[in-house]
Fold Metaxin.
Amino acid sequence: MAAPLELSCWGGGWGLPSVHSDSLVVMAYAKFSGAPLKVNVIDNTWRGSRGDVPVLTTEDNTISQPAKILNFLRKQKYNADYELSAKQGADTLAYIALLEEKLLPAVLHTFWVESDNYFTVTKPWFASRMPFPLSLILPGRMSKGALTRILLTRGEPPLYHLREVEAQIYRDAKECLNLLSNRLGTSQFFFGDMPSTLDAYVFGFLAPLYKVRFPKVQLQEHLKQLSNLCRFCDDILNSYFRVSLGDG
Protein backbone atom coordinates (compact mmCIF):
# COMPACT_ATOMS: atom_id res chain seq x y z
CA MET A 1 0.00 0.00 0.00
CA ALA A 2 1.37 3.43 -0.95
CA ALA A 3 2.51 5.71 1.84
CA PRO A 4 -0.06 8.39 2.68
CA LEU A 5 0.47 11.85 1.20
CA GLU A 6 -0.39 14.59 3.69
CA LEU A 7 -0.62 18.25 2.71
CA SER A 8 -0.47 20.89 5.42
CA CYS A 9 -1.91 24.15 4.11
CA TRP A 10 -3.81 27.29 5.03
CA GLY A 11 -7.55 26.81 5.08
CA GLY A 12 -10.45 28.40 3.28
CA GLY A 13 -13.08 31.08 3.38
CA TRP A 14 -15.19 33.14 0.96
CA GLY A 15 -16.14 29.93 -0.87
CA LEU A 16 -12.51 28.84 -1.38
CA PRO A 17 -10.87 25.64 -0.11
CA SER A 18 -7.82 27.81 0.74
CA VAL A 19 -7.27 31.56 0.63
CA HIS A 20 -3.53 31.01 0.11
CA SER A 21 -2.31 30.93 -3.51
CA ASP A 22 0.53 28.44 -3.07
CA SER A 23 -1.75 26.08 -1.14
CA LEU A 24 -4.44 26.36 -3.81
CA VAL A 25 -1.98 25.56 -6.62
CA VAL A 26 -1.07 22.25 -4.97
CA MET A 27 -4.65 21.40 -3.98
CA ALA A 28 -5.90 22.02 -7.53
CA TYR A 29 -3.09 20.03 -9.14
CA ALA A 30 -3.80 17.10 -6.81
CA LYS A 31 -7.47 17.16 -7.85
CA PHE A 32 -6.56 17.35 -11.55
CA SER A 33 -4.02 14.50 -11.35
CA GLY A 34 -5.94 12.25 -8.96
CA ALA A 35 -3.30 12.40 -6.21
CA PRO A 36 -4.93 11.15 -2.98
CA LEU A 37 -3.87 13.90 -0.60
CA LYS A 38 -4.97 14.02 3.02
CA VAL A 39 -5.33 17.76 3.64
CA ASN A 40 -4.45 19.08 7.08
CA VAL A 41 -5.69 22.63 7.49
CA ILE A 42 -3.48 24.77 9.70
CA ASP A 43 -5.18 26.11 12.80
CA ASN A 44 -4.08 27.46 16.15
CA THR A 45 -3.16 23.97 17.39
CA TRP A 46 -0.65 23.32 14.59
CA ARG A 47 2.98 23.33 15.69
CA GLY A 48 4.81 23.02 12.37
CA SER A 49 6.72 25.74 10.56
CA ARG A 50 4.47 28.18 8.79
CA GLY A 51 7.19 29.75 6.70
CA ASP A 52 7.12 27.05 4.05
CA VAL A 53 3.39 26.35 3.71
CA PRO A 54 2.17 24.33 1.87
CA VAL A 55 4.13 21.27 3.03
CA LEU A 56 3.73 17.75 1.65
CA THR A 57 4.69 14.98 4.05
CA THR A 58 5.23 11.36 3.04
CA GLU A 59 6.75 8.39 4.82
CA ASP A 60 10.25 9.48 3.77
CA ASN A 61 10.03 13.11 2.66
CA THR A 62 8.95 16.59 3.66
CA ILE A 63 8.59 18.84 0.62
CA SER A 64 7.69 22.52 0.41
CA GLN A 65 7.19 24.98 -2.48
CA PRO A 66 4.52 24.24 -5.11
CA ALA A 67 6.93 23.48 -7.98
CA LYS A 68 8.83 20.91 -5.90
CA ILE A 69 5.61 19.33 -4.60
CA LEU A 70 4.19 19.04 -8.12
CA ASN A 71 7.43 17.49 -9.37
CA PHE A 72 7.26 14.92 -6.57
CA LEU A 73 3.64 14.08 -7.42
CA ARG A 74 4.57 13.61 -11.09
CA LYS A 75 7.31 11.15 -10.06
CA GLN A 76 4.62 9.22 -8.16
CA LYS A 77 2.71 8.95 -11.49
CA TYR A 78 0.19 11.68 -10.62
CA ASN A 79 0.64 13.64 -13.82
CA ALA A 80 -1.93 16.18 -15.02
CA ASP A 81 0.18 16.98 -18.11
CA TYR A 82 0.51 13.58 -19.76
CA GLU A 83 -1.60 14.60 -22.77
CA LEU A 84 0.31 17.84 -23.45
CA SER A 85 2.58 18.20 -26.47
CA ALA A 86 6.19 19.35 -26.12
CA LYS A 87 5.17 22.84 -27.21
CA GLN A 88 2.36 22.96 -24.67
CA GLY A 89 4.83 21.86 -21.99
CA ALA A 90 7.14 24.71 -22.97
CA ASP A 91 4.21 27.14 -23.01
CA THR A 92 3.29 25.99 -19.49
CA LEU A 93 6.74 26.93 -18.17
CA ALA A 94 6.64 30.28 -19.95
CA TYR A 95 3.20 31.18 -18.60
CA ILE A 96 4.09 30.14 -15.03
CA ALA A 97 7.19 32.38 -15.22
CA LEU A 98 4.96 35.20 -16.48
CA LEU A 99 2.50 34.69 -13.61
CA GLU A 100 5.28 34.79 -11.04
CA GLU A 101 6.91 37.87 -12.54
CA LYS A 102 3.88 39.94 -13.55
CA LEU A 103 0.89 38.83 -11.45
CA LEU A 104 2.26 37.51 -8.16
CA PRO A 105 3.70 40.88 -6.96
CA ALA A 106 0.26 42.50 -7.24
CA VAL A 107 -1.45 39.56 -5.52
CA LEU A 108 1.06 39.81 -2.65
CA HIS A 109 0.55 43.57 -2.49
CA THR A 110 -3.24 43.22 -2.44
CA PHE A 111 -3.13 40.79 0.51
CA TRP A 112 -0.09 41.82 2.51
CA VAL A 113 1.02 45.38 1.75
CA GLU A 114 -2.11 47.42 0.96
CA SER A 115 -2.80 48.60 4.52
CA ASP A 116 -6.62 48.63 4.49
CA ASN A 117 -6.71 45.07 3.14
CA TYR A 118 -3.98 43.86 5.49
CA PHE A 119 -5.42 45.28 8.71
CA THR A 120 -9.11 44.53 8.04
CA VAL A 121 -8.88 41.17 6.22
CA THR A 122 -5.49 39.47 5.87
CA LYS A 123 -4.01 39.98 9.33
CA PRO A 124 -7.17 39.05 11.29
CA TRP A 125 -7.80 35.98 9.12
CA PHE A 126 -4.29 34.54 9.48
CA ALA A 127 -3.86 35.59 13.14
CA SER A 128 -7.06 33.73 14.09
CA ARG A 129 -5.44 30.51 12.81
CA MET A 130 -2.20 30.84 14.79
CA PRO A 131 -1.52 30.07 18.45
CA PHE A 132 -0.63 32.90 20.81
CA PRO A 133 1.96 34.52 20.78
CA LEU A 134 2.69 33.64 17.12
CA SER A 135 -0.57 35.37 16.19
CA LEU A 136 1.00 38.66 17.32
CA ILE A 137 4.25 38.16 15.43
CA LEU A 138 3.85 36.03 12.34
CA PRO A 139 1.36 38.11 10.28
CA GLY A 140 3.73 41.08 10.44
CA ARG A 141 6.63 38.86 9.45
CA MET A 142 4.63 37.49 6.51
CA SER A 143 3.78 41.04 5.44
CA LYS A 144 7.44 42.06 5.53
CA GLY A 145 8.33 38.94 3.57
CA ALA A 146 5.77 39.82 0.88
CA LEU A 147 7.11 43.36 0.61
CA THR A 148 10.69 42.07 0.34
CA ARG A 149 9.64 39.68 -2.41
CA ILE A 150 7.92 42.50 -4.31
CA LEU A 151 10.90 44.83 -4.05
CA LEU A 152 13.34 42.10 -5.04
CA THR A 153 11.47 41.59 -8.31
CA ARG A 154 10.32 45.15 -9.01
CA GLY A 155 12.50 47.55 -7.01
CA GLU A 156 15.31 47.98 -9.48
CA PRO A 157 16.07 51.42 -11.02
CA PRO A 158 14.25 53.53 -12.02
CA LEU A 159 11.48 52.32 -9.63
CA TYR A 160 13.16 53.17 -6.35
CA HIS A 161 10.12 54.13 -4.30
CA LEU A 162 7.24 51.93 -3.21
CA ARG A 163 4.64 54.26 -4.74
CA GLU A 164 6.32 53.94 -8.15
CA VAL A 165 6.65 50.20 -7.68
CA GLU A 166 2.94 49.92 -6.78
CA ALA A 167 1.85 51.70 -9.96
CA GLN A 168 4.05 49.47 -12.10
CA ILE A 169 3.06 46.15 -10.51
CA TYR A 170 -0.65 46.89 -10.94
CA ARG A 171 -0.10 47.87 -14.58
CA ASP A 172 1.84 44.66 -15.15
CA ALA A 173 -0.79 42.57 -13.37
CA LYS A 174 -3.66 44.00 -15.43
CA GLU A 175 -1.73 43.32 -18.63
CA CYS A 176 -1.08 39.77 -17.44
CA LEU A 177 -4.78 39.23 -16.68
CA ASN A 178 -5.70 40.51 -20.14
CA LEU A 179 -3.17 38.14 -21.71
CA LEU A 180 -4.54 35.17 -19.73
CA SER A 181 -8.10 36.08 -20.71
CA ASN A 182 -7.15 36.26 -24.40
CA ARG A 183 -5.25 32.96 -24.16
CA LEU A 184 -8.15 31.15 -22.48
CA GLY A 185 -10.76 32.53 -24.85
CA THR A 186 -13.88 30.36 -24.77
CA SER A 187 -12.02 27.16 -23.81
CA GLN A 188 -12.79 25.40 -20.55
CA PHE A 189 -9.09 25.10 -19.69
CA PHE A 190 -5.88 26.55 -21.10
CA PHE A 191 -5.06 23.50 -23.23
CA GLY A 192 -8.54 22.31 -24.13
CA ASP A 193 -10.89 20.06 -22.20
CA MET A 194 -8.56 18.70 -19.50
CA PRO A 195 -6.95 20.74 -16.71
CA SER A 196 -3.16 20.75 -16.40
CA THR A 197 -0.38 22.33 -14.33
CA LEU A 198 -0.97 25.74 -15.90
CA ASP A 199 -4.64 25.66 -14.90
CA ALA A 200 -3.63 24.85 -11.31
CA TYR A 201 -1.29 27.86 -11.19
CA VAL A 202 -3.75 30.27 -12.80
CA PHE A 203 -6.53 29.09 -10.47
CA GLY A 204 -4.27 29.36 -7.42
CA PHE A 205 -3.29 32.93 -8.26
CA LEU A 206 -6.69 34.16 -9.43
CA ALA A 207 -9.25 32.52 -7.14
CA PRO A 208 -8.25 34.38 -3.91
CA LEU A 209 -8.11 37.64 -5.83
CA TYR A 210 -11.57 36.92 -7.25
CA LYS A 211 -13.33 35.73 -4.09
CA VAL A 212 -11.83 37.35 -0.97
CA ARG A 213 -13.78 40.48 -0.03
CA PHE A 214 -11.33 43.35 0.37
CA PRO A 215 -11.96 47.06 0.99
CA LYS A 216 -9.40 47.99 -1.71
CA VAL A 217 -10.25 46.13 -4.89
CA GLN A 218 -8.25 47.73 -7.71
CA LEU A 219 -7.04 44.47 -9.25
CA GLN A 220 -10.17 42.54 -8.23
CA GLU A 221 -12.36 44.97 -10.20
CA HIS A 222 -10.23 44.44 -13.30
CA LEU A 223 -10.41 40.65 -12.94
CA LYS A 224 -14.20 40.75 -12.56
CA GLN A 225 -14.45 42.48 -15.94
CA LEU A 226 -12.80 39.41 -17.54
CA SER A 227 -15.79 37.08 -17.39
CA ASN A 228 -14.04 34.05 -18.87
CA LEU A 229 -11.40 34.06 -16.09
CA CYS A 230 -14.13 34.34 -13.44
CA ARG A 231 -16.05 31.48 -15.08
CA PHE A 232 -12.80 29.46 -15.14
CA CYS A 233 -12.42 29.87 -11.35
CA ASP A 234 -16.10 29.11 -10.66
CA ASP A 235 -16.03 25.99 -12.85
CA ILE A 236 -13.00 24.56 -11.02
CA LEU A 237 -14.56 25.30 -7.64
CA ASN A 238 -17.83 23.63 -8.67
CA SER A 239 -16.28 20.65 -10.46
CA TYR A 240 -13.36 19.79 -8.20
CA PHE A 241 -14.03 21.26 -4.76
CA ARG A 242 -17.82 21.47 -4.46
CA VAL A 243 -17.47 24.41 -2.10
CA SER A 244 -20.54 26.57 -1.68
CA LEU A 245 -19.69 29.86 -3.31
CA GLY A 246 -21.79 31.63 -0.73
CA ASP A 247 -19.55 30.62 2.17
CA GLY A 248 -17.17 33.14 3.62
In short: The chain has one domain: 3-239. The first helix runs from residue 21 to 33. Confidence is low (pLDDT under 50) at residues 243-248.
